Amino acid sequence: DTGVSQNPRHKITKRGQNVTFRCDPISEHNRLYWYRQTLGQGPEFLTYFQNEAQLEKSRLLSDRFSAERPKGSFSTLEIQRTEQGDSAMYLCASGNTEAFFGQGTRLTVV
Amino acid sequence: GIQVEQSPPDLILQEGANSTLRCNFSDSVNNLQWFHQNPWGQLINLFYIPSGTKQNGRLSATTVATERYSLLYISSSQTTDSGVYFCAVASDSGYALNFGKGTSLLVTP
């Protein structure tokens, strides 16, 4: 499968714990995006990478969220000190012009 | 940031009917995509269409960039067309793809 791959698919964590999600983009895609989606809403932009450079970050993103894309390949999204409001589907996309989405990681904070 | 408005928010059709979904946006764009989100949450690419007209089977899309809107046409709808349709745009001044709130489509037998 050469699509965007996200792991894990599901994550249940206790409030206050840190979690990290991984995204493997389609090979040779320069652009990588992270989004968050809650029930009944459209995906909400979190951050954007062009190769290894993080060029845009949503003002809605708190300091508890951090993302990296070392060497312009895979990317990780870390959430520190999780809160119940962080429960959502986290989506990753990659592309050069057109963006393609992975299947997402569903996070539940209990 | 750029505003994206989709209409209608909800749509119920009988199988075989045609429909038109609309996406209005507030600024010049360098990227516009239509997606279908299936019941499992996967976003399926339908069209990459910052301008012009494209067709793919029963689906077609038109973007009139100068008037800041795009239309998605679904002809001879099938029950498998059910789901949420999203329009997403990126403005000339940014990188983020900004999503509308979607149109929730239900096609009944």
List descriptors.
heterodimer; A: 110 residues; mainly beta; four-stranded antiparallel β-sheet; globular; B: 109 residues; Immunoglobulin-like; six-stranded mixed β-sheet; five-stranded antiparallel β-sheet; 11 strands
Description:
The complex is a heterodimer of chains A (110) and B (109). Chain A is mostly beta strands and 110 residues long. In chain A, 0% of the residues lie in helices and 52% in strands. Chain A has strands spanning 5-7, 10-13, 19-24, 31-37, 44-50, 53-57, 65-68, 75-79, 88-95, 99-101, 105-109. In chain A, the strands form two sheets. In chain A, strands 2, 4, 5, 6, 9, 10 and 11 form a seven-stranded mixed sheet that branches. A four-stranded antiparallel sheet of chain A has the order 1-3-8-7, with no helix packed on it. In chain A, strand 4 and strand 5 (44-50) form a beta hairpin. The mean pLDDT of chain A is 95. With 109 residues, chain B is mainly β. Chain B has a single domain, classed as Immunoglobulin-like (Sandwich). Chain B has strands at residues 4-7, 10-14, 19-25, 29-37, 43-48, 52-56, 59-64, 69-74, 83-91, 98-99, 103-108. In chain B, strands 2, 4, 5, 9, 10 and 11 form a six-stranded mixed sheet that branches. Chain B has a five-stranded antiparallel sheet with strand order 1-3-8-7-6, with no helix packed on it. Classes of the chains: A mainly beta (110), B mainly beta (109). At the A-B interface, strand 4, strand 5, strand 9 and strand 10 of A face strand 4, strand 5 and strand 10 of B.
